[in-house]
Amino acid sequence: MGNERGYIIPIGGAEEKEGGSILERFAKLCGGSSARIAVIPTASQDPESGPRNERHFREMGVRKVRVLPLESRQDCQDEKWVRKIEDADGVYMTGGNQLRLSTTLGGTGVAEAMRRCNAAGLHVAGTSAGASFLSEHMIAYGDEGSTPRASLVTLAPGLGLSDRFIIDQHFRQRNRLGRLLAAISYNPRCLGLGVDEDTAAFIAPDDTFEVVGSGAVTVIDPSEMEYSSMDSAERDRPVSVINVRIHVLTEGGTYDISARRARVAPALTGKP
Amino acid sequence: MGNERGYIIPIGGAEEKEGGSILERFAKLCGGSSARIAVIPTASQDPESGPRNERHFREMGVRKVRVLPLESRQDCQDEKWVRKIEDADGVYMTGGNQLRLSTTLGGTGVAEAMRRCNAAGLHVAGTSAGASFLSEHMIAYGDEGSTPRASLVTLAPGLGLSDRFIIDQHFRQRNRLGRLLAAISYNPRCLGLGVDEDTAAFIAPDDTFEVVGSGAVTVIDPSEMEYSSMDSAERDRPVSVINVRIHVLTEGGTYDISARRARVAPALTGKP
Questions:
Q1: ipTM of the complex
Q2: For B155, phi and psi rounded to 5 degrees?
C-alpha cells in the first residue's frame, strides 16, 4: 500500500439486478482476477447476502473473495479479521441497515483498519446502507419527500473515510431530495451526494468522481448558500434554504469535489 | 502561527456568573494583556451578549478584544472578518443556539479560517452552544433524561476542530447523560465529553485535557463497548448499551484522549 488514498465508491443499491457493470468496474479497479476482495455483509440480516455477493465476484473471475462474518463488536476486534482488511485490495459492504454497520463496526479494529488502509490505497465500496456508512456524517434514517424538514433526517457518525460529503442512496427511487437537503441545511459545509439505484460515484484519490451505471448522481453544493432556517424552523415544518446549486450527473459525468466543478460525459457534448 | 494545534476549550455554560477563573485561564493562555481575542456572539439572539463578553475580557486586562458582528452567511464570507480570525490569538463563542452557529458559519470563510488557524495554533473556546459547535459531530438538540433513547438526541455537523469527541454542556444541571449516551451509541467511535456549568475542558495540542472550574467533566469512553441496540431500538424506547466506561473528573483532573487514561488532580491523591 502507498501514500495515496484508495477510491471511495458509494453505490445507490440494486446494482446486482442490473447488468453488473458497477461491480465489474470495482473488481477491475482492485486488480481483476488477482484482486483480493473482502465482503462485509454486516448491514444485512439476510444470511445469503454475503455468499451471493461472493458468487457475483467469482463469476467475474475474481478468485480471492472472502466474506467476513462480522456479527458482533467482538468479531470486529478479532485480529484475524483485521488482517483480512489489511491484506485486501478492496472492501465491499452490502446493503441492509447502516446502523447495524455503525453500532457493530464503529471504533473497532476492523473499522480503524478500513480507515487506515483506505488512506494508504485500499478501495472501499458500499451499496445502499453500505454507501451511507462510508462518510463521516451518515444519514441514519429518515423519510421521503422533496421539501426539507428537520424531522426528515437523523444523522450519526459513519465510518469517516471523508468529511467532505454526505451520501444518500436509492435517491430518485425513494424521493430523498428533501432529506438530503435537510442534512446539508444543518451545516452547509458538506456536499450532498444522492446516488440512484444501479449507479455509483467512483471517487478517486484526488476527490474527483466519475458516475457509472444506469441512473444519476445528484450533487447538492451549498457553497453559495445564503440562508438556512434550520436553526429556527420547527421540526415538522418546511425549512427555507436559499441558493443551493444542484447538478444531476449521468454515466461518464465527472465532478471535482475540491474545485466544485461538474462536467458531463464527453459523449454527451461531442467534445473530446 | 506554528505547526502545533491550538487548544480546544468547551465550557459548560454559566461561567461568567461564577468566579470567572475559566475566562481568566483562557485569556492568560492567549497571551494575557497583549492577547488578541475575537468574540463570536452569533449563537445568541441577545444583542448584549457580545459587548458583555468584551467587557469581561477587558476587566481582566485584555486590551485587544473585538466582537465580530456575524449575523448572516454573507457576513461570514467577508474578508474583513476572516482577517480578524487570522490575526487573533483566541476565539471565544458565546452561548445561545448551536444551530445558529452551524447554519450561519458552516462552510464559510470565517469557519474555514477557524479550522485552519486552530490547526496552526489559534485557541478556540466556546460556552454552552459554542461548546457543542466545536467538534465534528455536534448535538443539535435533544431532551433530558438519563436513559438513552434514539429520539433524545439530534446530531448535525459542527465546526469540526476534532472528530475524536462529542460534547454536551450544562451536563449535570440538565440531566443530559441519556442524550450523550444515545449520541455515542450510534457509533462507538467518538468519546463523549459532558461538561458541567462553570466548568471547562482545556484540550491541549496533544489531546490531553485538564478540567478547570467548579463542576465536573464526565468522560464516556465506548472503546470496550460490547453491544448497542441503536440499530434495532424504536426511536422512543430505551437503548441497550453494554460496557461503557465513565469517568467524572473535577478541577485539576486530566484525561489523555489518545491513551484513554484519566488521572485525578494531584491534590486529591496527595501524590506529586
A1: 0.85
A2: -100, 150
Hey, what amino acid is at A80? Answer: K
Coil/strand/helix, residue A66: strand
What pLDDT is stored for residue A151 in this prediction? 82
Is pTM beyond 0.95? Reply is no
What average pLDDT does range B130-154 have in this prediction? 89
Whether the pLDDT of residue A114 is over 90: the answer is yes
Q: What is the pLDDT of residues A4-32, one digit of tens each?
A: 999 999 999 988 766 679 999 999 999 99
Long-range residue pairs from B114-119, CB within 8 A, at least 24 positions apart, any chain: B114/B85, B114/B159, B114/B161, B115/B159, B115/B160, B115/B161, B117/B1, B117/B6, B117/B85, B117/B86, B117/B88, B118/B5, B118/B6, B118/B8, B118/B161, B119/B5
Q: What residues in B contact A223, CB-CB < 8 Å?
A: 107
The CATH number assigned to the domain with range A8-263 reads 3.40.50.880
The pLDDT score that the predictor gives to residue B272 is: 53
B265 touches A at CB < 8 Å: no
Under 8 Å CB pairs connecting chains A and B tally to 117
Is B225's Cβ below 8 Å from some Cβ in A? Answer: yes
User: From the list B73, B157, B229, which residue is nearest A137 (CB)?
Assistant: B157
Q: Indicate the CATH number of B8-261 among 3.40.50.150, 1.10.260.40, 3.40.50.880, 3.40.190.10.
A: 3.40.50.880
Task: List CB contacts (< 8 A) between B104 and chain A.
Answer: 231
The pLDDT value given to residue B125: 98
pLDDT tens per residue across span B89-118: 999 999 999 999 999 999 999 999 999 999
CA distance A218 to A61: 32
How close A103 comes to chain B (CA, Å)?
Answer: 5
pLDDT score at A272 = 53
Residue A3 has pLDDT above 90, yes or no: no
Q: Which of B97, B103, B154 to substitute to test the interface with A, most A CBs within 10 Å?
A: B103
Domain spans, chain B: 8-261
Binding-face residues of A in 46-105 toward B, CB within 8 A:
72-74, 97, 99-100, 102-104
A160:B155 CB<8 A:
no
- Per the CB < 8 Å rule, is A185 touching B223? no
Residue A223 among the catalytic residues: no
Residue in this structure with the C-alpha cell 423519510, named with its chain if needed: A143
Option in A160, A189, A231 nearest B107 (CB): A189
Q: Is B73 close to A187, i.e. CB distance below 8 A?
A: no
For B133, name the nearest residue in chain A, comparing CA atoms only: A187
How many other CB atoms are found less than 10 A from the CB of residue B46? 13
| CB atoms A229 and B103 under 8 Å | yes
